[in-house]
Amino acid sequence: MAGLSAAARARELGAEPLVLEKGDRAGGSMLLSSGVIWRHRDFDDFRAECPGGDEHLQRAIFDRLDEGLDWLESLGARVTEPGTGNPRTVGRRFDPRALTDVLIRATSGARHRTGWSGTWPEGPLVLATGGFPARLARERGLLLRANPWSVGDGLELGRGRGGETAGDLDEFYGRAMPAVDHVAEADFVRLTQLYGRYATVTSEDASERFEGEPTWSETDLVQQIASWPGGRAWYTVEPASLQERVRERTVAAMIETARAAGAPVREEDGRVSVLVRAAVTQTLGGLRIDAHARVRGAGSLYAAGADVGGISTGGYSSGLAAALVFGRIAAESALG
Length: 336
Description:
2 domains; 21% strand; six-stranded mixed sheet; globular
């Protein structure tokens, strides 16, 4: 989202950007997402949800997301749902594949290189390498719920040029997934186990228990599970909660996807227990930028998307929204 948005906005402003894609396809982790791009309905809620984040960056997302969504539609992106289904948030859902294709078409005239590795170019450079979820998942023995190429190239380049960092580099946004060895990219959304609020959550060896109520995003719950042995937990659900709905799915339906995927499932007296694993979707720490997307301390270096840290610190906000807003801002600043 960040890189393609920056390139499309640069083309719109008359530039001919060079787009360097490390993977063998465009779209990054945006292509693997649910396609919902959102912001908090009220800015005070944004601050309360992510209390450690940079208020100026949060304000930019809050103020500029709606125009960014309108811009996507003006490029030809079709909205599949006009809302988020969450009263706390506002936004729009797009089909990720179709949105990726629209942004690629909008960069017509730009030079694209896939499978790139080599020397970084001189001059204004926008880093949009997706953070380092693949590296973090590998280092901590967790599942990866993102593209495999985001290993921290942007972060390391930025730090190598004197760039500052922001946020906690160990903090991540993730989801609970069935406790299996591998989840295919096509199943990242379908297999998500998003019903921790209806479950009793204990570590696999029963030595730990999640106390209290998880936040609505359940990111805090997933990070707690990640700290337990093996990054695994049992979700135990009472019979009365099986028909509760989370978005368009029931708890029972999500459990069945886990069972079909091969995760251990136990049933006793009507209660159902599912073994889940913490999975890393997006790192929340990264390079520190100003409101113009410039990396602090690194000269003509800009960053957007998950390469930026210090926006969602302490909570959760839309990574696609931040990528869209600061991808556009980075292009405008680099050409200003």
